[in-house]
Amino acid sequence: MNSNGTKTVQLSRRYGFSAAHRLHNAQFSAEENQRLYGKCANPYGHGHNYVVEVTVSGPVDAATGMVANLTELDAFVQREVLEPFDHKYLNEEVAEFRAMVPTTENLCREIWRRLKPFPAARLERVRIEETSKNSFEYEG
Amino acid sequence: MIRVTRKVEFCASHYYWNAEWSEEENRRVFGKCANRHGHGHNYTLEVTVEGEPDAQTGMVLDLKELKDLLQGEVVERMDHRHLNHEVPELAGKIPTTENIASVIWDLLAPKIRSGRLQRVRLYETPELFVDVCGATNGAGPKP
């Protein structure tokens, strides 16, 4: 709801990527990692089919009827998120996760940081489904 | 405050075309959505009403009334229709998910008799949906 009492319109798009990660903090002992992260700390990592739901807002353009052009949004997400993350081991192959445990909470924040500069609409929310039972949201 | 959501589906065809633009411009902006023969979707509509449950009924609103409202205002207007040609409320608008959801909000908001319309969510595909939220029933801006 915006300040002048009119409708707000948000557009959400879902994307998928498959990646491996391991939840492990090198500053903790093996016992502490096991206690905190359980089987998510297994040394070879494990994988997920992540679903990323990106929500943007803005006025509905009178000429196009759209909040944002999906082709532009898709290309931006592809370049900033999907290409660097898909079919990768996040702990080793994404620089930001060498110093940060790639929990899905941290993944939300990192994907938010990468998508925030999208020029054509305002980023409202990044929601990630790690599995069908666990999802995380971040609104900046 | 409790939110109650009812879901309905409707199947419709549409295409995206701005009559003030050239064919090249339409194809550049809208891509394959500009095919003038149209294409179709199974739309899924989720309508959310919020309010306090009535002390006697335990309900925010009578879901049968909401079901009938969605049937009359949305499904009968849009199901198995061509959205560019057969829905007067969309005349002059490009039938994007944004515009369809906004029209559905305008159709439903004045007719919710118990609680307030909180959100209209329209899925064009499982991967693409639009949320419309706004004030209704003279309730004033939602904080």
Walk me through what this model shows.
The complex is a heterodimer of chains A (140) and B (143). With 140 residues, chain A is an alpha+beta fold. Chain A has a single domain (10-138), classed as Tetrahydropterin Synthase, Chain A, CATH 3.30.479.10. Helix content of chain A is 29%, strand content 29%. Chain A has helices spanning 30-37, 70-85, 90-93, 104-115; strands spanning 8-21, 46-57, 88-89, 122-129, 135-138. In chain A, strands 3-1-2-4-5 form a 5-stranded mixed beta sheet. The mean pLDDT of chain A is 93. Chain B has 143 residues and is of the alpha+beta class. Chain B has one domain (2-13, 39-132): 2-Layer Sandwich (Tetrahydropterin Synthase, Chain A). Chain B is built from 3 helices and 5 strands; from the N terminus they run βαβαβαββ. In chain B, strands 3-1-2-4-5 form a 5-stranded mixed beta sheet. The two termini of chain B are 14 Å apart. At the A-B interface, β1 of A face α3 and β5 of B. β1 of chain A pairs antiparallel with β5 of chain B.
Keywords:
heterodimer, A: 140 residues, alpha+beta, Tetrahydropterin Synthase, Chain A, 5-stranded mixed beta sheet, B: 143 residues, disordered C terminus
Stretches of chain B where pLDDT falls below 50 for ≥5 residues?
136-143
Number of domains of chain B: 1
Radius of gyration of chain B: 17 Å
Mean pLDDT of chain A: 93
Specify the CATH architecture of chain A: 2-Layer Sandwich
Could you name the CATH homologous superfamily of chain B? 6-pyruvoyl tetrahydropterin synthase/QueD
Biggest chain contact: A-B, 23 and 30 residues
Q: How would a textbook summarize the main sheet of chain B? A: 5 strands, mixed
Strand content of chain A: 25-35%
Distance between the termini of chain B: 14 Å
Which homologous superfamily in CATH is the superfamily of chain A? Answer: 6-pyruvoyl tetrahydropterin synthase/QueD
Which CATH-level-2 architecture of chain B? 2-Layer Sandwich
When the domains of chain A are counted, the total is 1
Compute the gyration radius of chain A: what is it?
17 Å
What is the 3D shape of chain B? elongated
The average pLDDT value of chain B, as a whole number, equals: 92
Instruction: Indicate the proportion of strand residues of chain B.
Output: 25-35%
Number of helices of chain A: 4
How far is the N terminus from the C terminus of chain A?
A: 18 Å
